[in-house]
Structures are given as structure tokens and as C-alpha cells.
Amino acid sequence: MMSARGVHVERDAEGLKIALREIFEEAFLREASGGMDGATASTMARIAEEMPQRSLSPGYYTRAEYLLDLATAIECGVGYSAEVLGRDDALGLQALKRARNEFERDHPACSCGARQHSRFISQCRRCGAKFQGSRD
Ligand SMILES: [Zn+2]
After folding, report:
1. Nearest CA-CA partner of 10 in 87, 97, 75
2. How does residue 43 score in pLDDT terms, banded at 50, 70 and 90?
């Protein structure tokens, strides 16, 4: 699959990392907005409106979803080994790891499990615990 930039989506580690970060951000914003469960139509419309625009072509997000599924399968011990994975898969999984690291650094989790809007927040958005000092 070729992207608009003329590179193979599967081999564009930087592009995939960006797409994955955006998917993580979207999931975070949905969760931080109270989730979709039981949300009214107007709440859901507001959440959709606040979602940042995706910056890349759809092929990147399709590939990113595939990598997330692949990583989940591996974490569940489905039995992928390095020999089974192609080079593109390995490259994609590395991009996923970097995207996750960046996301977790920017949205540190409280001891209650809630991720925060940024690492400069001084109080947990869910349980109200105070964070001390700089968090970097
Ligand atoms: Zn908390």
C-alpha cells in the first residue's frame, strides 16, 4: 500500500508512530470524556467535535489498527515468533512501542490507574490525588 507521500505505509515507521499516537490520544479523550457508554447523543456529538483531526491518510490508521491487533495477539501468547513476523511487522511493532512510550510519558497514570491530560497536572482528574513536584 502506498501513501500520498509515495512511501510504503508498512515501512514508514515515523508515519506509523504518528498514526498510533493519534489513535492512543483518541482513545484517551473518549475515556476522559466519560466514555461512550450511556452518553447522550449531544455528548457524543461534542466528543466527536473535540477529537483532533487525523493528520495522515487512512492507510496509516488501517495499518496501525493491524499492528495493535498483532501486538495484542503477541501479548496474549498466541505464539508469534520472530521467524514468523515479517520485517515490516517488526518495524511496525517498534513504531508501536515508541508511540506507546511517548503516550505514557505525556499522559502519566495516577496510582488509581487514571491517565492524566498532561504530565504537568498537579491533581488526578479522577480520584483527586495530588502529585508532587515535577513529573518528568
Ligand atoms: Zn487518581
Report:
1. 87
2. confident
CB–CB of 112/127 below 8 Å?
yes
Q: What grid cell was written down for 81?
A: 515468533
Residue 33 CA to residue 36 CA, distance in Å, equals 8
Alpha-carbon span 52 to 82, nearest angstrom: 35
C-alpha of residue 118 to centroid of ligand 1, in Å: 13
Q: Please name which of 96, 62, 97, 87 lies closest in space to residue 11, comparing C-alpha atoms.
A: 87
How many angstroms separate the alpha carbon of residue 44 from the centre of ligand 1?
24
Residue 98 CB partners (closer than 8 Å, separation 6+): 17
Model confidence pLDDT, tens digit, residues 79-122: 666 667 889 999 999 999 999 999 999 999 999 999 999 999 99
Rounded CA separation 95/83 (Å): 19
Amino acid at 16: L
